[in-house]
Amino acid sequence: MRDASLNPRRPLATQPMTHLAAQLSWLDDPVIAARLVTLTAGALRVVIAPDVGGALAAFYEATSAGPLHWLRPAVPQAFEARDPLRMASFPLFPYCNRIRDARFEFDGATIDLAGNDARFAHALHGNAWRHPWRVDALDESAAELSFEHRPDPRVRGDWPFRYRARQRIELSGGALRITLSAQNLADRPMPFGMGHHPYYPRTAQTRVYADVQAMWHADAEVLPTHFGAHPAVDALRAGMSPDAFDLDNNFANWAREATIAWPDEHRSLTMTADAPFDHMVVFAPANDPQLCVEPVTNTTDCFNAVGMREQVGGCVLQPGEEIEAALTWTPHRE
């Protein structure tokens, strides 16, 4: 149901999950562990899987009772399949979410992305998440990763612009901070967007707080139809249960701050974002344990969407132009 209608029933799959129910068994697998990078700062830990799309495998706090997860940890199968969709969070370059029919018009030409992933009818999340990233620098609490895309005309649906993406992932001041940046390495302008795709633990008591102005309503294929009011806007301001609506929708002109709270566990996680992360996606499907609150620079299908620039987002990077902005997740415990 993509019009995000009310869902008064609690999803059957959304059963309470304490931090003790999600242990990090894959850290005990030497083959998997050898592929990972772990950052530490006090009790905080972030585990990075560079070869799984530069994704985060976990962000947690080490406690005497076990790991207290601030993001939903990866499942073991995610490493074998190299599947970022089953990780804790992953970067989105050079656009976020779907592009209708995997094509759009730009600078007088049709950009055809069809064929880049047979699983999806519409191009999804760009291409950086489908490739390994390189670790360029590393210390105890910070890592710098990069990915450079060189278009290959032999690959159907390949992104036709050369670019370099970077992530600086660090634990500092009791928080996780990720600085995303990109540079257009092509000799022509490139349409662009970026973001991160975090999954959070979802329980019956979880609440999401955010100050948003309006929502992009979507069709059955999760593509935007129109921008306007929705009860979820007020619900988010008051503290929305992920079970209240069937959501996979973009919210524009948010305050660039959102809090995911677990009041029964006396804790919360506040996410803040720099401009131009002026858009936020909430993915809270009915009858499903997933919950995403994603900071992004563009709405779904931004290269085709019709609307005011502040409602659509995205930008055009000129040859050699760079863009950089940071995201921060700060845990709080009562």
What portion of residues is helical?
Answer: under 10%
Mean pLDDT: 92
Computed over alpha carbons, the radius of gyration is 19 Å
Structural class per helix/strand content?
Answer: mainly beta
Topology:
Elements: H1 30-33, E1 37-41, E2 44-49, E3 55-63, E4 66-69, H2 77-81, E5 91-92, E6 98-99, E7 103-106, E8 109-112, E9 123-124, E10 134-138, E11 142-149, E12 163-172, E13 175-184, E14 190-192, E15 195-196, E16 207-210, E17 214-218, E18 224-228, H3 231-238, E19 247-252, E20 257-262, E21 267-273, E22 279-284, E23 292-296, H4 309-312, E24 315-317, E25 322-333
Antiparallel strand pairs: 1-2, 2-3, 3-4, 5-15, 6-9, 7-8, 10-11, 11-12, 12-13, 13-25, 14-24, 16-20, 17-18, 17-19, 19-22, 20-21, 21-25, 22-23
Report on the structure:
It is a single chain. The protein is mainly beta and 334 residues long. The chain has one domain (19-333): Beta-galactosidase, Chain A, domain 5. It contains 4 helices and 25 strands. It has helices at 30-33, 77-81, 231-238, 309-312, and strands spanning 37-41, 44-49, 55-63, 66-69, 91-92, 98-99, 103-106, 109-112, 123-124, 134-138, 142-149, 163-172, 175-184, 190-192, 195-196, 207-210, 214-218, 224-228, 247-252, 257-262, 267-273, 279-284, 292-296, 315-317, 322-333. It has an 8-stranded antiparallel beta sheet. Strand 22 and strand 23 (292-296) form a beta hairpin. The longest helix has 8 residues, at 231-238. The two termini are 36 Å apart. Mean pLDDT is 92; it is low at 7-21. One of its GO terms (biological process) is carbohydrate metabolic process. GO terms for molecular function: carbohydrate binding; isomerase activity. It comes from Paraburkholderia susongensis. InterPro entries: Aldose_1/G6P_1-epimerase, Gal_mutarotase_sf_dom, GH-type_carb-bd. Pfam families: Aldose_epim.
